[in-house]
Write a structure and sequence with these properties.
Elements lengths: L1 E4 L5 E5 L2 E5 L21 E3 L5 H4 L2 H8 L2 E5 H9 L5 E4 L4 E3 L4 E6 L16 E7 L2 E5 L9 H7 L4 E5 L8 H10 L4 E5 L11 H10 L3 E3 L6 E3 L1
Parallel strand pairs: 3-4, 4-5, 5-6, 10-11, 11-12, 12-13
Antiparallel strand pairs: 1-2, 1-14, 2-3, 7-8, 8-9, 9-10
This protein binds nickel (II) ion (NI) and manganese (II) ion (MN).
Length: 226
């Protein structure tokens, strides 16, 4: 799968000819100032929860691209009220078949409200199952024992895990999460953007390596085949 990093927790994934975009937060992110938001393609936008650092560019990109937004029922209602009508509401535990593959929503231990204070439902992670492989996008979450269910449910080829600590789990807990989900290839997210979540890249990479796992840290704007 072709994966592009747009900073913080925002990734584009090309899957079965469709462009999936996760947690669009680009224009307020000074680290992502070289990203041209208007050039980002999306057929689907997956939103893990309502916090500003996951939805800042959501409405603009959804309106420009016409992409379908996959999110909680509460975020779906909020978007409909803002004039974004192509939405697909889901909730934790639910699975649905899309043209690129299946999405299964899983628990994330975090909080969730929209920038204007609107309740956004429970935060979620996503398991994406497809003929090109399976991956897990954790969203913002603590390490939870529930992650063992993900490892038992599907073979996960790679996973996006938060590693910045403070607001989510950090590197040490993400290494345990990788064990729980039985996945050796981890793509780090939710680090460096704000001062409390700045990390030393090499230390995190070496810790994962020591645990027998691989931590991939993309440069912002970088595209890789994973
Ligand atoms: Ni959050
Ligand atoms: Mn966040």
């Amino acid at each position: 799968m072709k994966i592009t990093y747009y900073g913080h927790s925002c990734f584009g994934v090309e899957l079965n000819g469709k462009h999936l975009l996760f947690d669009p937060f680009i224009t307020p992110n000074s680290l992502a100032k070289n990203i041209d938001v208007k050039s980002i393609k999306a057929d689907y936008i997956l939103v893990s929860h309502g916090h500003e650092d996951h939805v800042a560019d959501l409405i603009d990109i959804a309106k420009r691209t016409g992409a379908q937004v996959i999110c909680t029922f509460e975020i779906h209602t909020w978007l409909n009220n803002k004039g974004v009508s192509n939405t697909h509401p889901m909730n934790v535990g639910g699975k649905f078949k899309f043209d690129f593959g299946n999405i299964k929503c899983v628990t994330a231990a975090h909080s969730s409200s929209l920038p204007d204070g609107t309740y956004a439902g429970n935060p979620m992670g996503f398991i994406v199952e497809s003929t090109e492989g399976n991956f897990y996008f954790a969203g913002d979450t603590a390490l939870t024992y529930d992650m063992k269910l993900i490892g038992d449910y599907r073979k996960i080829d790679f996973a996006f895990l938060p590693i910045g600590d403070n607001f989510t789990m950090g590197t040490d807990n993400a290494i345990i999460a990788a064990e729980f989900i039985k996945c050796r290839k981890i793509i780090g997210m939710h680090y460096d953007t704000f001062s409390p979540i700045k990390i030393d890249h090499e230390t995190s990479i070496q810790k994962f390596k020591h645990a027998g796992n691989e931590l991939l840290l993309f440069k912002i704007g970088e595209t890789k085949l994973v």
